[in-house]
Specification:
Layout lengths: L6 H10 L4 H19 L8 H15 L13 E5 L26 H8 L3 E6 L27 H8 L5 E6 L5 H6 L3 E4 L19 E6 L2 H11 L17 E5 L8 H16 L4 E5 L4 H27 L5 H10 L4 H25 L3 E5 L19 H6 L3 E8 L5 E7 L5 H18 L4
Parallel strand pairs: 1-2, 1-3, 6-7, 6-8
Antiparallel strand pairs: 3-5, 4-5, 4-9, 8-10, 9-10
Helix pairs in contact: 2-3, 7-13, 9-10, 9-11
Organism: Dictyobacter formicarum
Protein name: Amidase
Pfam families: Amidase
C-alpha cells in the first residue's frame, strides 16, 4: 500500500510539461479508487475526478507558459477536515451539522491554491481534532492506527495518494502520525502558518502543520505557507548543529524499544560528526503535561459553548469528557496555562544558549503505532514542544521489532524554522542510509 513519491520532482515535471497534468490526475484518482477503500484516508466525494479535471483545465488556461507556472502547479493536496475549503462541507470528524462550521476558506488553503495546487479532497480527522478516531488505517499495516488527529492526511501522503497534505497540531497531531507512518511531518513555530478558517481545538496551541514524504518536499512548501520565510537560510548546513538530548523524566516516557532505537540513531549521527550533549530538562514534566491538557480542555469547552448544550448527545465519549472537564477550569487556571507557554519557551531557549546546542533531538513517539483503531497513540513526546510553540519536525529513523516505522523528532528555537529544516535534511539522509524505511 506504500508508494514512494517525490513532491519536488513531480512539481518540476508538471510545471515543465514533462508530466501531463490530466494523465497525472487520472493516475492519482485511479490509485485512490483502488487503495482508499482499505485505507479510508479521504472523505467520500461524488465525481471527484471530474472536479479535479476541471481544476486542471482552469490552471492550464491560466498558466499556459511553463516558465510562469507556480510552484505547486496541478499538485493534488489533501486537506484535513477541520479546515474550511470552498466547495466542501466541514464536519471536523463529528456528527454535528456542517452548517455550524460554515465560513470563509482557511488562509492556508488559499495559499496552496495560489501556489497552483488542486484540492484532492478532505481527509479524515479524529472528532474535533481530539482523540476519538475515524476509520483511517496505517498504510504500513492496516491493523494499526495511523495516529491522530491528522489521520487521513498522513495516511494519504504515506500511501502516495497525494504528495502533500495539511494537518494540525494541538498536542502531537502532526509529528506523531508522521512518525507512525514513516514520513516527514513539520509543525512550524506557533503562528507562522495562519490558523484562521479552522474549526479549532485549542487556539493557544493550535498549529497548522503539513506532511510530505521527504525533507526536500517539506522545505519546498515552507516558503509558500510560513509567514516571512527567510530563503537566505535555504541549504545552510555548516557548521553541523550541536544536538541536545532532553534527559530526565520526559525522555523516560518513551518505551524501552523507542529509547534503544533513539540511542542507535544518536550513534549514527555521532559517527557522522555531530556533537551530542545531554541536558537535564523537564524535571516537572507531569506538571507541564497537566498545564497543557487543562488549558486545551478549557479552550475546547469555550469554543464549543455555542453548540454543546444543543448537540451534546452527538459528541463521542472522549470528546464529551474533555469538554466537561474544560468546563471545570477557572479563568485563573486558564490564564496560568497560557502564561506557562512563554515561560517554558524561555527556559528551553535559555538552556539551548547556555549549553551551546542548536537542536533538541528525541523520539517522536513512545514507540511504534499501536495495534487497533481504538487509540491513536500517546502524544506525550510531542506535548512540551507544542506547548512552548517551538518548531518541530519528525523524520523516518528506523523500524520497530514489528516492522512499523519509528521517527526522530528534532526541535529548534522559536522562529528558527529555516535553520531547523536546513540542518535536518542531511541528518535525515544519514538515518535513511542506515535504516530500512518503507
Amino acid at each position: 500500500m506504500i508508494l514512494s513519491t517525490s513532491l519536488t520532482a513531480t512539481a518540476a515535471a508538471l510545471r515543465s510539461g514533462q508530466l501531463d497534468p490530466f494523465a497525472y490526475i487520472d493516475t492519482i484518482c485511479e490509485r485512490l479508487d483502488t487503495v482508499d477503500p482499505q485505507l479510508h484516508a479521504f472523505l467520500p466525494e461524488k465525481d471527484r475526478r471530474g472536479r479535479l479535471q476541471a481544476e486542471v483545465a482552469a490552471l492550464q488556461k491560466r498558466f499556459p507558459d511553463p516558465l510562469n507556472r507556480p510552484a505547486l502547479y496541478c499538485i493534488p493536496v489533501g486537506i484535513k477536515d477541520t479546515f474550511r475549503v470552498d466547495g466542501f462541507p466541514t464536519r471536523a470528524g463529528s456528527q454535528l451539522p456542517a452548517e455550524l462550521f460554515a465560513g470563509a476558506e482557511a488562509s492556508s488553503v488559499g495559499m496552496l491554491r495560489a501556489a497552483g495546487a488542486c484540492i484532492l479532497g478532505k481527509t479524515v480527522t479524529t472528532e474535533f481534532a481530539y482523540f476519538e478516531p475515524g476509520e483511517t488505517r496505517n498504510p504500513h499495516n492496516v491493523n494499526h492506527t495511523p495516529g491522530g488527529s491528522s489521520s487521513g492526511s498522513v495516511a494519504a501522503v504515506a500511501a502516495g495518494l497525494c504528495p502533500l497534505a495539511l494537518g494540525t497540531q494541538v498536542i502531537g497531531s502532526t509529528i506523531r502520525p508522521a512518525a507512525f507512518c514513516g514520513i516527514v511531518g513539520f509543525k512550524p513555530t506557533y503562528g507562522r502558518i495562519p490558523t484562521d478558517g479552522l474549526v479549532q481545538c485549542a487556539h493557544s496551541v493550535e498549529h497548522v502543520g503539513y506532511f510530505t514524504q521527504d525533507v526536500a518536499g517539506c522545505s519546498f512548501v515552507a516558503p509558500l505557507l510560513c509567514r516571512d520565510w527567510r530563503s537566505e537560510y535555504s541549504g545552510q548546513v555548516e557548521p553541523l548543529p550541536v544536538l541536545g538530548v532532553p534527559d530526565g523524566p520526559y525522555l523516560a516516557q518513551a518505551s524501552a524499544e523507542a529509547l534503544a532505537a533513539f540511542e542507535d540513531q544518536l550513534t549514527l549521527l555521532k559517527k557522522a560528526g555531530y556533537r551530542v550533549r545531554r541536558i537535564p530538562v523537564f524535571p516537572d514534566i507531569e506538571r507541564i503535561n497537566r498545564l497543557h491538557m487543562r488549558m486545551v480542555f478549557a479552550e475546547m469547552a469555550r469554543a464549543h459553548a455555542p453548540w454543546f448544550a444543543r448537540y451534546e448527545t452527538l459528541y463521542r465519549p472522549r470528546t464529551l469528557a474533555a469538554i466537561r472537564e474544560g468546563q471545570t477550569v477557572s479563568e485563573e487556571e486558564l490564564a496560568q496555562g497560557r502564561e506557562g507557554r512563554a515561560t517554558l519557551r524561555a527556559v528551553l531557549e535559555a538552556l539551548m544558549q547556555e549549553a551551546g546546542i542548536d537542536l533538541w533531538v528525541c523520539p517522536a513517539t513512545q514507540g511504534p503505532a499501536p495495534e487497533g483503531l481504538e487509540s491513536t497513540g500517546s502524544p506525550l513526546m510531542n506535548l512540551p514542544w507544542t506547548y512552548a510553540g517551538l518548531p518541530a519536525i519528525t523524520v523516518p529513523a528506523g523500524l520497530a521489532a514489528n516492522k512499523l516505522p519509528l521517527g526522530l523528532q528534532c526541535v529548534g528555537a522559536s522562529m528558527a524554522d529555516e535553520q531547523l529544516l536546513a540542518w535536518v535534511a542531511p541528518m535525515a539522509d544519514i538515518l535513511a542510509s542506515h535504516c530500512s524505511i518503507l
